[in-house]
Design brief:
The complex is a heterodimer of chains A (173) and B (51). By secondary structure, chain A is mainly alpha-helical. Chain A has a domain at 133-159. Helices cover 72% and strands 0% of the residues of chain A. Chain A is built from nine helices and no strands. Chain A has helices at residues 2-8, 12-18, 23-47, 55-61, 65-77, 86-126, 135-141, 143-154, 163-167. In chain A, helix 7 (135-141) crosses helix 8. Chain A starts with a helix and ends in a 6-residue tail after the last helix. The model of chain A has no long low-confidence stretch (mean pLDDT 86). With 51 residues, chain B is mainly α. The model of chain B has no long low-confidence stretch (mean pLDDT 92). Classes of the chains: A mainly alpha (173), B mainly alpha (51). Chain A binds chain B through residues 130, 133, 135, 138-139, 142, 145-146, 148-150, 152-153, 157-160, 162-163, 166-167, and chain B through 32-46, 48-49.
Chain lengths: 173, 51
Amino acid sequence: MASKAAAAAVDFTRIYSSLGLSKETVAALQAFRKRHGDAQRIQTQYASQPTTVDLAHYRSVLKNKAVVDEAEKILRDFKPVTYDVNAQIKAIETFEAKAVVKAKETTEKIDIELKDLQATLANIEDARPFEDLTAEEVGNAHPRIVEAVENMIKKGKWTVPGYKEKFGDLSLM
Amino acid sequence: MPQLIPFYFINQLSFSFLTLLALIYIISKYFLPLFTFQQVIRMYITKLNNK
């Protein structure tokens, strides 16, 4: 399955550090990883243990052969209890589908954020010094200033307080 | 010169009055606000630059 192959190739340290996940998500992810690691460890531990019983050895060692025969019979008749794991698998699959959908949503969100950030970055890179700006550009960037000027003019205020002191005046009167 | 003939005085007066009104309207609506706008922007940029 493609999703399982993808899961195997996931670089978790990068996910923790670079995606900006919330604390709960990181904790849940770490708990899930720990659970998976524990299960894997236990599985390898049990898989390495022997699964056969050397009955001939016991027969040669013990005097009471009937016990060994009985043990052999019990062993032969023993059948491991089978569990129906379909329900669990189904739950896991629905969880996986949900997780994939959520991951897709998150990637879309991140894509949008990335576009915003790139636009901001382009804005910063294209920024020009104050000397090169025109009044019109500043007005376009801050429509509030245009509104304020319109209000000033409506009230009959044609000059800016402090302007004359700062920049001087060309009028001869 | 027709300007000096009294018959045309009213005509001249009315047209000069209309022209003056139109000029005042156009200048105060479209040109003078640009000066105020420029002053405001200049103050704004100066304040930003000093920050």
